[in-house]
Description:
35% of the residues lie in helices and 20% in strands. By secondary structure, it is of the alpha/beta class. It folds into two domains: 27-144 and 280-304, Response regulator (Rossmann fold); 145-279 and 311-339, 3-Layer(aba) Sandwich (Rossmann fold), CATH 3.40.50. The strands form two sheets. The chain has a seven-stranded mixed β-sheet, with helices on both faces. A six-stranded mixed β-sheet has the order 8-7-9-10-11-13, with helices on both faces.
Amino acid sequence: MRRISRLTRVAVGVASLALAATACGGTSSEGGDGGGDDKGLAIAYDVGGKGDQSFNDAAYAGLEKAKKEFGYKTADIEPTDGETDADKEQRLTSLAKQGYNPVIGVGFAYGPAMKAVAAKYPDTTFGIVDSVVEGKNVASLVFAENEASYLAGVAAAKATKTKTVGFVGGVDVPLIHKFQAGYEQGVKDTDPKVKVVSQYLTQTAEEGGFASPDKGKAAAEGQIEKKADVVYAAAGLSGQGVIEAAAKAKIWAIGVDSDQYKQEALAAYKDSILTSALKDIQGAVFALAKSVEDDKPLTGTHTFDLKSDGVGLSDSNPAFAGIAGAEEAVEKAKTGIVDGSIKVAAE
């Protein structure tokens, strides 16, 4: 197996998904009863599951693309409430035993389980999103979330009229700190007079920080009371509550991971979604599946950043073009990040 330090030019093409707003339970296996042959990509979802209109749905879009491209059986499995590392290990083991290849854990929480299971199934390629796991048959798919969030911060600073913007993080963990750090830096570099009000919903994922729209809505309402008129959420399914609160208050929301302006389940609020900080999880998932299909499975750490088009900022909402100076400021920031003249903090 070859080891590659970075995937090159993976296009940001996060698809518009038409999925239910609530996560579905159980396991979905496409293409019949399995039969033991021609099994391809399988993914195990993170907290919030399919239907989050964000992180997990972007992974599902990659699975659907691989299924269409390669014509093989796929599987996707939902998480359970209050699950342990042992539960995750059992889930990954089951998929590997059934012959799926590759097997991807969507989210950093799969780290310990992935390390254990990959060692037991050396002929299966494993992938993990948002974490680094060492292993000869493991591809770690990580993103420069701070860079996309910096661009979101630039947009927020240009859009605010109250000089106060908000950040809602799902869980107080290093991954979400990257979103916050980039966003706050983008705001301050654009307009030092703009205040950023930040809040985390929970200390642990088990408390529902990534899966509780009601918590997201309450946090956004609190920030709106503090005069925030742009609110950015990096909170998975909980972000839907942030977007709902923003729409109700007639202020701007900034989406995350997928282009949330295009999500059918969020259509009622789309006019309030100014932009979204994108992570091409779909592209990363598909790239790993393709590498296995080509018999050249990727392993090692692969970083999707702004330079490789692995992260970015959406411009689907026509209203974005109407924010004075926003497009120009974002383009200037993109250029600076790519050429290295702007160094974006990661914490």
